Amino acid sequence: MPPCRAVIFDFDGVIVESEEIKTRAFAAMYRGHGPEVVGAIVAHHRANGGISRRKKIRWCHRMHLGIELDERALDTLCQVFSTMVEDEVVACDWVPGAEQVLRRLQGCYPLFVVSGTPQDELTRIFARRNLDQWFVEVWGSPRGKSEIIEDILARHRRSP
Fold it and tell me: What is the pLDDT of residue 121?
């Protein structure tokens, strides 16, 4: 096996304990549609970690509410979601051991983050938490994780 030359991290649930914050936000967004819808949406969210909220919200509306969202309505719902979660994610705890791992790896390897969180929100969170100091690059949606990872590997001349 070739030696490690870089490390790419996910964000939610890997660096910070933000997964349940986002789960609660999905539940709150759909609470008015009854417990069955909320349960199905929370299950979908948990089963599809790392997928952008845009895709999840569009799917939830289509499959559980029978609504095809246009881009403007989807943008509005994504902004509502962002408003619900951003301050909590900034304030939440580290995943146990994550900070220590970053301290050990920083300077030894280039470190990257690839997340399903929207890029602009991720950038704000990293700045507010002073996390950007640890990483060479931090990437979020709308691009998918596979596409971002392929791009990082190509630009930094790394193999998977």
Answer: 97
Report which of 72, 87, 106 is spatially closest to residue 25, judged by C-alpha positions: 87
Q: Which residue segment(s) compose the domain that 145 sits in?
A: 7-17+93-155
What Cα–Cα distance (Å) separates residue 4 from each residue in 75, 79, 102, 103, 114?
39, 38, 15, 17, 17
Residues 114 and 76 in one domain: no
Nearest residue to 29 via CA among 53, 50, 12: 53
Beta bridge partners, 7, equal: 111
Average pLDDT (8-37) is: 96
Q: 102: closest CA among 149, 137, 142, 134? A: 134
pLDDT digits 0-9 by tens, 89-120: 999 999 999 999 999 999 999 999 999 999 99
CA distance 117 to 134: 18
Both tokens of residue 45? 């969210």
- Tell which wins on pLDDT, 3 or 137: 137
